[in-house]
Amino acid sequence: MDSDMEYSDDDDLDDAMDYYGNEDDIDNVDPKKTDPEFFLYDCLSVDEVEKLLNELVEKLSNTLKITPSLAKVLLNEHKWNLNDIVERYRDNASNLLVSSHIKGGHGKKVTHGTLLCPVCIQSQASDKFQSLSCGHSFCTFCWSTHFEIQVSQGISTQIRCMAPACDVLVPEDLVLSLISKPQIRDKYQQFAFQDYVKSHPELRFCPGTNCQVIIRSQDLSPKKAVCKVCQTSFCFRCGNNYHAPTDCVIIKKWLTKCADDSETANYISANTKDCPKCCICIEKNGGCNHMQCFNCKHDFCWMCLGDWKQHGSEYYECSRYKENPNIANESVHAQAREALKKYLHYYERWENHSKSLQLEEQTLERLKNRINEKVMKGLNSTWIDWQYLFTAASLLAKCRYTLQYTYPYAYFASMDASSARKDLFEYQQAQLEAEIENLSWKIERAETTDRGEIENQMDICEKRRITLLKDFFPTTTNALESI
């Protein structure tokens, strides 16, 4: 099988050359050590994955001298760990068919006398019956009807014996031998293939719409995989949107909480706020949180409405939630209000950065129009002179995306008052947010003469982002232990 190993984001390779130094030195850089998001994986077709799985089935079947159908049951139940299965069953392969531990069944005909089917209560010749390793026998008509009903409900590899409280799984060869309808057979094979891929720890379906690509990687970290066909990006570990530095368990809790408390948080969905100085209504139409009132020219923060100068460059306090030191002595209702206030603090910033990413797409369009106007007027510039701004906008989006996913991490970290890393995380989060807002402000007002200043700010932002991810990005071990 041809390998198509690739980096998680092709564009990041070009950025890495700028970030790590001269092109002559790039070959000497080990991205596994320098980039916490570095990730190797394959983008495979359905045929390639079927070939991969069939090779494992054939190898196990030959090793243990069992049927391919039973080999599939074993591999699917043991997450395709062939070595583990061989070590466990090599010495008792003859007992595989009756082992309740593996829950594997094997179809066989009953070849003597007349039997009564427990399902349809009809007496039929014994050659019209099939039994599994558990010994339960049913007529072929009832088996085929059972299979069709199960497949119509989306069940395939988990079809079990019809006897009450029997957990023996029905092997593939028996199912396919008794399903006569072509469309049901196709559905069964389709569902079975999906089950096999989902049970294989190194395989993930691309979540892109109607995309048939399957991602394979031996690195089970919660890293970002990008489909080479549809360009959909997602977390390889859990299959959700990429969420570094928050781990898979925390982002699941966060999204569940956001869904549960969505009505409570509706009040923050408004896109307008009053200027804290002149009280005129202002609409946010860009991604930058550094606002300047068009009426009184007052500079303030969109999130906390504080004077922008007081945010300072040394410490950006807006992202940190200030705990009430006396909350433990307050009433239950007061504690509940404080808990809601804390959640809304983090949710508002999470939602704000999500909206900022969307608004910055509009800012980019306005930027293109402004550049086009300047170029068409011949104001001593060409499109090449402005290309650095589009690179800056791309980096800004990447940094803001990472920043958005720091807030679920920060919310749940705030629950642990004894966390020694909490202060460090909040400091790095604040530093990253301050530099991102600075870059966003400069991009929206950039001229060709600002290239050096903006590229310097880009370098600062990316270094802040990489530092935060290196310190707080979940490792493979931690991620697996938390699932």
Give a brief rundown of this model.
48% of the residues lie in helices and 8% in strands. With 483 residues, the protein is mainly alpha-helical.
Terminus-to-terminus distance: 31 Å
Main sheet: strands, sense, barrel: 3 strands, antiparallel
Shape: elongated
Could you tell me the number of beta strands? 14
Overall CATH class of the domain at 248-269 and 324-482:
Mainly Alpha
Q: Any idea of the CATH topology of the domain at 248-269 and 324-482? A: Four Helix Bundle (Hemerythrin (Met), subunit A)
- Estimate the mean pLDDT confidence: 79
Helicity range of the residues? 40-55%
Low-pLDDT runs: 1-27, 97-105, 476-483
- Proportion of strand residues: 5-15%
- Main β-sheet, spatial strand arrangement: 1-8-7
Tell me the series of helices and strands, N- to C-terminal: HHEHHHEEEEEHHHEEEEHEEEEHHHHHHH
Alpha-beta content class: mainly alpha
The number of helical runs is 16
The Cα radius of gyration reads: 30 Å
CATH architecture of the domain at 248-269 and 324-482: Up-down Bundle
